[in-house]
Amino acid sequence: MTHAFCQATRGAVRRLPACLSLALLAACAVSQQQEVELGATSAAQIDTMLPLVRDAAVNNYIASLGNQLARATDTRGLAWHFTVVDSKEVNAFALPGGWVYVNRGLIERAQNMSQVAGVLGHEIGHVTLRHSVQQMQQSQEVGGAAVLLCTLTKVCESGTGQAAVNVAGSALFAKFSRSDEAEADAEGVKTTIKAGIDPNGIPEMFRILLDERKSNPSAVDAFFASHPLAEDRIASTQAEIAAYSPNQIKGLTRDSRAFQSFRSRLLSLPPSPKPKAP
Ligand SMILES: [Zn+2]
Q1: Cα(231)–Cα(69) distance, rounded to whole angstroms?
Q2: Distance between CA 82 and CA 102 in Å, rounded?
Q3: Residue 175, pLDDT score
Q4: E strands within 15-134?
Q5: Distance 234 CA to ligand 1 centre (A)
């Protein structure tokens, strides 16, 4: 696709239905501005579909932890958005341009701040490494990206917000390759360390989720669908951490009072809406 085509379509794209505009955007090399527009469009749709936690204390905390991590690694000056989805299922996902969503169910299962920070660091990594955008560009070549957002739009029009809990993080969202996942894990380790947070929260959270998969598999289905997770990811993140000198890791923050009150606050909120079949 020529640059001129991309220039010419850019204005037209805004006037087209979302699924078509995505198809056109994906056909061109995606600039940072387009990446942010794509993220903003998807985020606006997701915000109407998914039940979100609308509690000022919760939102302030996740934004502050997320920005602490993003600032440590983002070199493009993106405006980051961190949101807690009101779902008891375990999941987390990122949209191009800096939108990161983490489910209440994941946070409630974490024991300390570093475990949630590790998940955020991983999702931030998918954005900074531009996995989300690349995934859309690649899948466009086989028509997948248009289907992706058209499906999303259809769900928006026909389904209830609650139904969409089933959708987020499952087939609709990019399934990253194992190498993308490994890269995002490594990025999560680097980012947490740069932000002054203990990276051991990453393999710890994987352990919690793998254990949960044995006892309560449906609660972690969505997470495993979008994040292929196996014992080897625990081993490889532990190896990445071991490459640092113990002095670099010692003294990094593992937990905080602010995190524990954030988690208690979530636990005290009314139960999450039950997902319905779409
Ligand atoms: Zn991932």
Answers
A1: 25
A2: 8
A3: 63
A4: 81-85, 92-95, 99-103
A5: 14
How far apart CA 34 and CA 4 sit, in angstroms, is: 15
Task: Tell the burial category of 274 from Cβ atoms under 10 Å away from its Cβ (0-12, 13-18, 19+).
Answer: exposed
228 C-alpha to ligand 1 centroid (Å)? 8
Q: What is the pLDDT of residues 221-236, one digit of tens each?
A: 777 766 666 688 999 9
Cβ partners under 8 Å of residue 271, min gap 6: 88
Whole-angstrom Cα distance, residue 236 to residue 217?
23
CA separation, residue 72 to residues 66, 75, 274 (Å): 10, 9, 36
Compute the distance from residue 184 Cα to the ligand 1 centre, in Å. 6
CA distance 238 to 234: 6
Is the CB of residue 110 less than 8 Å from the CB of residue 243?
no
Please give the distance, rounded to the nearest whole angstrom, from the Cα atom of residue 226 to the centre of ligand 1: 7
Q: What are phi and psi of 156, to 5 degrees?
A: -60, -40
Which one-letter amino acid corresponds to residue 10?
R
Q: How far is the CA of 122 from the centre of ligand 1 (A)?
A: 6
Look at 243 and 137; give whichever has higher pLDDT. Answer: 243
Report for 42-46, 152-156, 233-237: range of highest mean pLDDT: 233-237
| Residue 163 to residue 167: CA distance in whole angstroms | 7
Helix 113-128, helix 201-215: angle, nearest 10: 100
131 CA → ligand 1 middle, Å? 9
pTM above 0.85, yes or no: no
- At 156, is the pLDDT very low, low, confident or very high (cuts 50, 70, 90)? very low
* Beta-carbon neighbours within 5 Å of ion ligand 1: 184, 227
For ligand 1, the distance from its centroid to the CA atom of residue 268, given in whole angstroms, is 29
Tell me: pLDDT of 109 over 90: yes
- Position 46 scores a pLDDT of 81
Measure 123 CA to ligand 1 centroid, in angstroms: 6
